[in-house]
Amino acid sequence: MISASILRKYALLPLSGLAVACGSGGEPVKIAGGKPAAGAPAAADKIGQINVLVDASGGMQGFMHANAPGEPGSNFQQTVAALLSDVNGQHGAPAAYYFVKEATGADPRILVPTSYGALTSAVSTGIQRPALGTELPLMLAEALKLHAQRPGTVSLIVSDFIYSPKNSGETWRVKTDVKDALATADAARLAVSVFANTSEYRGNFYPGNRTRPQPLHGEKLPYYIWVLGAPALVAQVDGTLLKRLAGQPQAHFNTRFAPPYTALDHFQNKGEWYKTEPVAGVPTLGFTKSVSRKEPAEVVFGLDLKAVPAEWQKAAAQGLRLDAAATDATLLRTWPVAQEPAAAGKPYLQQYTYLAKIRVNQIPGAGALMHLTLPRQQPAWVAQTSTANDSNITKQGPKTFLLADVLQGVADYFADQPSAQLSLDLPIRVQRAE
């Protein structure tokens, strides 16, 4: 989001006429029930509210503009209008809609309640009276205030997320400012997903480094949809309301994806073992005979990763690891089901995307909890999209001022959470049969 002082410098009009009667904006939202991560409390699985917040600052006018008859509308308009329609057309949890602006003496609100109709009209036909922009940290803090008022809230925030501190000599504080803004929430109970995209931009672009505005005539600029909420709930929204964005660049912080996975007891198995009832939701294997290095057991797991981010799916074949606990187990191989010759004749394999073969050499008397894990990596697109100087955006291409610092601030906030090291953590219990 463009800094308020930058927009004031260019004398943008105040927000008026955008606020309408606060209400649900239409039908409540239906969210498909999601599977919580192993050990996650069941209460975290229920969405109580969906909030949609759209940046109504002058810096967003280039994305939300009027179109001539027959024009298809910008990528931004098509994507956000479809998202709003998806939210409005669902049933199950109420939805609320807001414009985001700067607080003023005449109107101290940062989030202005509105309706689905008013918000989608602004996206589709343009912001008639653009507001001054609010600072990114304030926008995040205000969204989290709504979460505190109603547990189970998930917020979708649409903006260019350009953050330029009012004091240009304090851009080094961007990471800290973003981290502090999130600190009103408990890091263990919050997750953030970021979906990136680009869209043609018409109008004045206001650089984050406070140089003069640049007129653009359809050049592409980045915009983002952020999802904030409880970890299991954010994963649900990512996989349902935002499923049309699955192919876009993404970054996830503390989001708990719990993809289906199970031992395949009739495929390339070795040794005497069987599947028992899950313990606390964790797949459990019972071994009827001792194993050793000379006589190991081998188990193939089917992993359905279709609902996790595409970049994680690509990383799974080479990046999946095994925390063997006290079992002395090893991960022999991970491979896509599409590359398994036997899959064509075995329909039960085709419901999975990857296979992982584990060799078990030792079963402790009290059992053990192994973990298939995928180490977390910073998405490459973040550095590629970030710039410390956007004063000549037409030559640079689609970049966002200090984006890497903004997302590093989010990462710093979650640094003490297990998800800071792991994208996926799939536990497996092994024990001797009774």
Automatic annotation (TrEMBL):
<feature type="signal peptide">
    <location>
        <begin position="1"/>
        <end position="21"/>
    </location>
</feature>
<protein>
    <recommendedName>
        <fullName>VWA domain-containing protein</fullName>
    </recommendedName>
</protein>
<keyword id="KW-0732">Signal</keyword>
